[in-house]
Amino acid sequence: MRIFDHGKHLCGGSILSEWWILTASHCLINKNKSTLEITHGDRSLNTRNLTKMKVDKLIVHPHFDSWHMDNDIGLLLLESPFHLDVKRVPICLSKVTDIRRWRNCWVSGWGITIPMLRMYPVLQKVDIQLIKWKKCFHAMPSVTKNMLCAGSPQGGKDACQGDSGGPLVCQKKGNENIWYQLGIVSWGVGCGKKNLPGVYTKVSNYLSWINMVTTASGRPYASEPDSGYSLRLSPWTILLLYFVMILLPP
Q1: Which domains does the chain have, with CATH numbers?
Q2: Which one of 94, 164, 186, 204 is the catalytic residue?
Q3: Is residue 230 annotated as part of the catalytic site, yes or no?
Q4: Exposed/middle/buried for 231, CB within 10 Å: 0-12, 13-18, 19+?
Q5: For the segment 165-203, what is each residue's pLDDT rounded down to a tens digit?
């Protein structure tokens, strides 16, 4: 999902529902909805198969701090819903915050792949690792609890300029059939530098805000309940099995 302003690439985004696009607040500051346009379709932007959508409303988080990049999350309400199909599927959200429960994480976008070069015309993706918040804070003391970090220990794998607003997605351990968006590309110190991971908005901190704002706008989005446990890891399941074992005859 790509966001244009005055016909030029602005930021990435992700499909939250047929009406809503999830992106970063810093992409929307001082922007006018009349000049914004959403495109989706093929991975390449040089094709004629792109669908363009107009924006009815843009929403910046009321506590977005452009200096510290805190609360860097925003929403776009479309003028009309777009057709969902196998290539246009809403991303799932999760309240799970323990990074040990996630695997196979990727970030994607049309941003530059080499600093100071032009935007890439084909959607790119790279696998990255989630990094513990304390380790990230040690490297970059300006990160807040509303942020999460991801990258490669050796460097070389990261989001970069032009990828802002795009999704960081992962699969849950024990359930490889569903992709969840954990982060929104927000900021970083350079691109792909060793020991300096990319910084992402921590989406799980904003589920209530998303539900509140979308409901107030008349197009409610309701995230599905998500305990974060597969059946075999559920503490209730373990407790149930424990009592079953007690009741079984010797």
Answers
A1: 2-89+206-217 (2.40.10.10), 92-204 (2.40.10.10)
A2: 164
A3: no
A4: exposed
A5: 999 999 999 888 899 999 999 999 988 999 999 999 999
Q: Which of 182, 129, 133, 116 is nearest to 158 (CA)?
A: 129
Q: Is 56 a catalytic residue?
A: no
Select which of 26, 94, 186, 204 is catalytic: 26
Instruction: Work out the mean pLDDT of the chain and round it to a whole number.
Output: 86
Predicted TM-score of the model (pTM): 0.86
Could you give the CA distance from residue 247 to residue 244 in angstroms, rounded to a whole number? 5
Q: How far apart are CA 128 and CA 158, in angstroms?
A: 7
R_g of the chain, CA atoms, integer Å: 19
Q: Is position 164 annotated as part of the catalytic site?
A: yes
72, 94, 163, 186: the active-site residue: 72
